[in-house]
UniProtKB/TrEMBL annotation:
Coiled coil: none annotated. GO terms for molecular function: ribosome binding; translation initiation factor activity. It comes from Baryphthengus martii. GO terms for biological process: mitochondrial translational initiation; ribosome disassembly. The keyword Protein biosynthesis applies. Pfam families: IF3_N (PF05198). Belongs to the IF-3 family. This is IF3M factor.
Length: 129
């Protein structure tokens, strides 16, 4: 049973799979090979070996330069940051029906920002006296 996948980029030399599918740094497939061959290739080209897809048979690894690895880590961090948290966040906004035009425009901008962040927005309008 292979060990659980560590954080992206921390593969190093610990590869729990005997046979893996290898992709080179330019994105070309090198085919299936034994982990020893993949490690030898990694050392020869002075690259890092990174797990891309664990759930395939055989798992897919890619040879990457330090720069490519850093860029991929930044992309994944940005994607994770942009994705909403588990569970639905609901925002509620209430205002009077006699609201001034400028105040209404400000609240509309706030609602638009919340919708962009994939929040559920509930608007309540109170009747003016």
């Amino acid at each position: 049973e292979p060990r659980r996948k560590a954080a992206f980029g921390s593969v190093g030399r610990r590869i729990p799979y005997r046979i893996l599918h290898l992709i080179d740094q330019d994105g070309e497939s090198l085919g299936n090979m034994h982990r020893a061959e993949a490690l030898k290739l990694m050392d020869q080209r002075d690259l890092k070996l990174v797990l891309l897809h664990e759930n395939t048979d055989p798992p897919v690894y890619r040879l990457m330069t330090g720069q490519q690895l850093h860029e991929e880590q930044l992309k994944r961090a940005e994607k994770k940051k942009a994705s909403p948290k588990p569970g639905v966040v609901q925002k509620e906004l209430s205002f009077s029906s006699a609201i001034a035009k400028n105040d209404l425009e400000t609240k509309i901008k706030q609602i638009a920002q919340w919708i962009e962040k994939k929040y559920h927005v509930k608007v309540t309008i109170r009747q003016a006296k």
